[in-house]
Give the backbone structure.
Amino acid sequence: MENNRKHRSFFQSLLLGLMMSMLVVSISGCDEDDGPDVVNAPSATDKTPKYIFFFIGDGMASPQVNLTEAALADPNFRLVNGAITLGALNLQHFPIAGMATTHAEDRYITGSAAAATALATGHKTSIGTISKNAAHTLDLKTMAEMAKEKGMKVGIVSSVSIDHATPACFYAHENTRKNYYEIASQMDDSGFDYFGGGYAKGNLSNGVPAYDIETQMANAGYAIVNTLAQLKGVQPGDKCWAYTDYDGSAALYYEIDRMGTDHVSLAQFTQEGIRLLDNPDGFFMMVEGGKVDWACHANDAVSATHDMVAFDDAIGIALDFYNQHPDETLIVVTGDHECGGLSLGYAFTGYGSAFSLLKHQEISYQEYSEIVDGWKGGGKTFEEALDDVKDRFGLGDTTKDPAFALTANDSTRLETAFNDSMNGGFDRNDEEVFLKYGPYYDPFTVTVTHILNEKAGISWTSYYHTGVPVPVYAIGAGANSFSGSYDNTDVAKKIIAAGELN
Ligand SMILES: [Zn+2]
């Protein structure tokens, strides 16, 4: 009897909840002049979230998510550099999922600036524009600016430079993403409380003195820190710009190269951000996993996968916080666009997959390109180069896996690419050459990752973004409104509505 009553009351409340949410949908539909508004239908029982996390995987669509899960299915995948194995992705456990289109105002296949403008403001714009309209006559207010005006604290975290397109679209307004210095100069104007991750690329270019943005930030009262110990020493409530060791592009190192070092991780930047931002008026934090995109541009599936794990680790930190404040926290995860035309399947392997091969790659394409560059002038013969590839990628080493055996076609491709890397003289404008090496990648390195990926049953159709939709994952207060199919501008509208930011 007791059990029956419990069941009955459960179904009664389910029915009541369903009726109430239908009522909300129909009321909000009546309010609109331009047709029913299916964008914002928060569940009647949802509180307004006091803590909002917005995670953006740059270059992340379903193939990147599922490839990472497939790679992690091999328990040795993350043991390459001595790191622990993590298992399935946190984001796949979110109860609500949706699908979003990504096109820009002036191009079907979007770029990170137009996509991030859509995700930050709810408005389409033109390629390259940072949170302004396509005509560049209007600044578009961002959800981070709205949150700040509402009295919440605001944090912006990215694994690429803090003035790169995605983070920039939350605090800056510029006609072009290439104005790195002008973008970075707007960090202090925003009054945001925490910037974490990569350095400012604007301080590395334009002939501007290298201390300029830092002076500007210090003068505006930001603590500037570079190590995890220093970051942990910053007091909650103090404004902070935290950046760590960075690569030539002012970004964090690829996760595959960072693992096992003491460079601050994306998860640590997120964790410390929560500590600094947590306050009675709540906070908004955007966290970007930026180098999934860069690795996919380069057609390096393993580096992309490790950066996906680093991104998902940061999501795990937010989930820990959610578990402490489940009624008051909203976490939304999406990608800005797919990159590389990544496909889980390859013509020559047919229906076969061999994801377990991926664990043998120990280094990013970027670091390997630098090594290969060092061989120019006779540093290595082709045979020695193949031995090096066996060590660092497994490719060609049948003792590691019989599937690593090189076919005659593989060997020809590798030898041609090796000679092109050593001697130059090839023409990237030639169609066949371009399809092999892309717009600027090292011929030998990109051929190694292509062949390794193909043997695993993975292929690429592009060195650029593609137009496939991106998944949206949500959990917490207001999460229900994120189910369904919609546009990337709607992701912003839903967050703004759920958080009552406007
Ligand atoms: Zn990109």
Notes: The chain has two domains: 51-342+464-498, 347-455. Residues 347-455 form one domain. The two ends are 49 Å apart (CA to CA). The first strand starts at residue 51 and ends at 57.
